[in-house]
Design brief:
single chain; two-stranded antiparallel sheet; 16 helices; globular
Length: 510
Amino acid sequence: MTTATVATGVVAIPGPFQVIKPPQPSSTSTWKDVPYAVLFVANVVAIVAVMVSLGLPLLQAATTSSSSSGQANATASSSEFTSGDMATVVAVATALAVVSAIVAYLLLQVVLMHAKHIILYSLWANVILCFVFAAAAIASGVVVLALLFIVFGFFSLCYLHAVQSRILFAGANLQVAAAAVKKHWSIFPVAFALMAVQVAWVFIWAIALVGVFQKATSPVPNLGASVAGTSCSASSECESDVCAKSSNATRLTCQPFIPGQAIVTYFFMLVSLYWGVNVVKYLLHTTVAGTVATWWAAGDSQSATGGAFRRAMTTSFGSICMGSLLVAILEALESMAKEARKKGNGVACVAECILNMLRGILEYINRWAFVYVGMYGFPFAHAGKAVYGLFQTRGLSAIVNDDLIGAAMGSLSLACGLICALLALAYTYIDTAHTSFDGANLILPLMGLAFGVGVTVIPLSVVSSAVATVFVCFAEDPAALSRTHPELHNEMVGAWRLAHPDAMVAFYPL
């Protein structure tokens, strides 16, 4: 994208710098990208209808069947997973949810109170953890794993040395973002409410998928022949009429029967799933952007989060649906290619790599485009062009790739997951009476890891979205921060001058 693509409006103001305001879109409609909002609502209604009409009846029938079967075989084996074991898993899961929420809250407090230093702490924590794991591997006698962790540790040290000059810059951006988030704590209830919506959507979709697949599946070609996974020498021996090598397999086996209509159905169901998940994700991102931009320009304003969320759910909802749909289509295609690659399809492997790259590019574009959607309520396409026009005009196109903060947030999420996993593992040794079922020392720690990472990702994603908004606001109008929060402005300008002096001189001369 060239600067000619978007005509940025440079507004001269008193002082040593210029404010760049984005051009207004050609459309004057208040509601942006409306067709995509209508299509998304239709998608949600369709999935709910399929769940009610096809999924739930099938699930109820299966539950009744398994219940009667379970009563008949209740005394078959005492080593099976019992209702008492299930009660233990549920109790531990509930406890882990509470613990992970507490740990996530404490980590968030650390981020907000020590924003300038948290990046350095997280980088050093990565180094230390690598050598701790190496020592544990040596103690366990797994020398190869120990060597691997040692190599990772040295690479982490080299990375720490390489980015040392940029840590202060990233810390200053994070500090300003943290200040905005601390002033508007109402963002976090919105974030967790959206997470609950996301979980509910996945649950509804999964039930609908069961019903759709049962309806879309047609009779197998060779009924009575060998089932999937059985060794074969010819396709005629297989129930699916397909005898081939699976990925990494050395022998021919019968492949599962997947009719053409099921493949098409699976693709559209995947698009539906990913679309819903991404809409919720970008709703939060857009809400945070609107909130932080208001804090930046107007100071400690009230009801900023409510206004930003209302705009995201109404006038900007179509734009969010549009950007989310593009990502969802690529994710669905990537999932299909991944499944084909697992079956030994070489072309699918290449396709998966290309789709993964395209998805990464589009998600990167969305991260910045939705900041302008949240700030100005622009249509999606116009927002993307405008924000990249801003970066090119300011000479910041390379700097936006400097993502030390994202790596730090990822490390903190993993740290919370590891803490919860270790607590769950410790419980299996403390309460052996209730954790004697097979796989308890694996199932419970994995649950702890999932809860820890999943719960922490929500508040840290708020911080990450706030950082992106701070970057855009500083590129557009640093003077606004000097009026509303002068101390933060001075620290941020100082950090930018140290890390990127050439870029700063170009749009913020001494």
